[in-house]
Design brief:
With 203 residues, this protein is mainly beta. The chain is built from no helices and 15 strands. The strands form three sheets. Strands 2, 3, 4, 5, 6 and 7 form a six-stranded antiparallel sheet that branches. Strands 8, 9, 10, 11 and 12 form a five-stranded antiparallel sheet that branches. A four-stranded antiparallel sheet has the order 1-15-14-13, with no helix packed on it. The chain starts with 11 loop residues before the first strand and ends with a strand. The relative contact order is 0.24.
């Protein structure tokens, strides 16, 4: 696997500056119903629960690709993909390049079709669930090793479902820091995301 945080000479890789200009709103909602509080444009796709799975599902704007989390035989949450066929949805395929980092849930795929955010409780997390970012490598047909996006988005509590509505230029994420067992706090912010590609062979 390629590691965004530990690349060698000759590798081309991405770094992200995931700051924000300002938090414009925050509000407390029920933990069991927080998905309905995400107000995103149709151009950003849909996030939803599905009775056939145990986790959260993302469906893209075109309605022809899904990424979702589901409980596996190992009793861990892993990510799966589906594509729309003429006669329905394909058989779910596990994203195996992300299957060895603990529980993985709350996926969101950016409009470029390759940048994926999700939450995981792996050993590199600051607390429970942290938010991670990865990108699909079309040459190897797998996702790169993910990077923790760090503070202030992540904390010693559970932080998850980070997304950026590029059409409305608004970002969202949810956390249970400072909350009781039945509520979470949602933050809406103006994103300041910068993506630059570096070729380490020229550095």
């Amino acid at each position: 696997k390629k590691d965004l945080t530990n690349v060698g000479a000759g590798d081309t890789y991405l770094t992200w500056d995931l700051g924000y200009n300002a938090v414009i709103d925050s509000f407390i909602v029920s933990k069991n119903d927080f998905l309905n509080s995400y107000k995103i444009s149709k151009e950003s796709g849909k996030i939803m629960m599905n009775p056939d799975i145990t986790g959260v599902m993302y469906e893209n704007e075109m309605g022809n690709k899904r990424i979702f989390s589901n409980l596996t035989d190992s009793m861990e949450m892993h990510l799966f993909t589906q594509v729309k066929l003429l006669d329905g949805w394909s058989t779910p395929e596990e994203i195996t390049s992300l299957s060895d980092i603990g529980n993985v849930d709350y996926p969101y795929l950016m409009g470029d079709g390759t940048t994926l955010y999700f939450a995981s409780d792996n050993e590199e997390s600051l607390g429970g669930y942290d938010i991670y970012i990865t990108r699909y490598d079309s040459e190897d047909n797998e996702y790169l090793r993910p990077s923790n996006i760090g503070m202030p988005f992540n904390s010693a509590a559970n932080d998850y479902l980070y997304l950026v509505d590029e059409f409305n230029q608004l970002g969202w994420f949810v956390t249970d820091r400072g909350q009781g067992g039945d509520t979470v706090c949602m933050y809406c912010f103006i994103p300041n995301e910068t993506r630059r590609i570096y070729d380490t062979s020229t550095m």
